[in-house]
Amino acid sequence: MMKPKILLAFFYFSKFFFLFCLWSVLDGAYKLFSPFSDTLVIKTPKKSPLLLMMVVLVLAMVCGVYICSLCLRQISNSTKAKVLRFQVTNQACPSFGIEPWEIPYVHYPKPETHSREHCVCNGVRYFAILSMQRSGSGWFETLLNSHINVSSNGEIFMVGTRRNNISSILRTMDQVYNLDWFSSASKNECLAAVGFKWMLNQGLMEHNKEIVEYFRNKGVSAIFLFRRNLLRRMISVLANSYDRDAKLLNGTHKSHVHSTEEAQILAKYKPIVNATLLLPDLEKTEETITKALEYFKSTRHIVLYYEDLIHNHTKLKDVQEFLRLPYRELSSHQVKIHSGNLSKQVGNWDDVKKVLKGTSYEGMVHADYQM
């Protein structure tokens, strides 16, 4: 490729040559046909100088057009190279400490509602806590939010209009992951992970294919959280449903409490379990969990159980490693409502034991743990 200075010299030379030829042609024509000439030249010369000059003029024009096109092409390529160098220079933040397999899961959001000027090169991981009601997801989320670099925005799809169709679901997730979602969990610190919790019965199972595709394309990591003891979960669901109407705490319904006194008040209520539907309900819950794990098996995910988090605190370290977070001691101010023996928490305990005896769920009757 010719250098720009050489091309420019050719351009000016061709321009001068073209003007010289044009002057020569016009001068020759003037001498031949001028009305002020004393003599009329009738005899035609052997070779017409006018024709020769016209040929030279045409060649000069062709040469000039060609050289101009080369100049324009060179300028265009030079401009593109400058733009490319600019984009490469500004494109990126250094990826030190990020392993190759992590790259699809590290993001640099550009929110529309505020500026990340001081955090623009802080990579952010996207996550979603996939769970079921009364499985410890609220408590688990408070643990995550105690990390200074994590923002988990709660049960955002509890609002029905946000899950009317797949378009509204994807639009809502885009808003969260672009850091344009504001909640009590929003932080001013440079985030390392952002997400929310999502119950399986809030459109997740119905639109599983589209959501799995979104998770894979956007690099969203799924955190499954379930309870091993589905019987305890059922009792918690019944008690919480009762309090939604009874409002035992001074006329206020609370799904989670932060004091022992409030927990004791709510724990006084002993729900009656429908013995006829007990087994089908437990089987249906187990089936839903199995389906969810099958649907999302192609995503990057981790499976956690509430009981394991209580008994084994290293599980919280596993979660932080999964999200590639700087390690911190996580804490929560929530107080467990139902603890101790199940026999003291159910109004028809003998019926429950009878139905579950000899089934795969019998072990749940005797399982116990403290928080």
Give the gist of this structure.
The protein is an alpha/beta fold and 371 residues long. It is built from 13 helices and five strands.
Description:
It is a single chain. This protein is an alpha/beta fold and 371 residues long. It has 13 helices and five strands. The chain has a five-stranded parallel β-sheet with strand order 2-3-1-4-5, with helices on both faces. Strand 2 (150-152), helix 4 and strand 3 (193-199) form a beta-alpha-beta unit. Helix 1 packs antiparallel against helix 2.
What string, H for helix and E for strand, traces the elements in order? HHEHEHEHHEHHHEHHHH
* Overall pLDDT: 84
Largest sheet: 5 strands, parallel
State the helical fraction: 40-55%
**What characteristic shape results from the CA principal axes?**
elongated
Structural class: alpha/beta
What low-confidence regions span 5 or more consecutive residues with pLDDT below 50?
36-47, 78-91
Q: Give the N-terminus to C-terminus distance in angstroms.
A: 75 Å
Annotation field: number of helices: 13
Strand content: 5-15%
**Widest sheet, order of strands:** 2-3-1-4-5
How is the topology of this model organized?
Blueprint: H1 4-33, H2 49-91, E1 125-131, H3 137-145, E2 150-152, H4 166-177, E3 193-199, H5 200-204, H6 208-218, E4 220-226, H7 230-246, H8 260-267, H9 275-295, E5 301-305, H10 306-311, H11 314-322, H12 349-356, H13 363-366
Parallel strand pairs: 1-3, 1-4, 2-3, 4-5
Helix pairs in contact: 1-2, 9-12
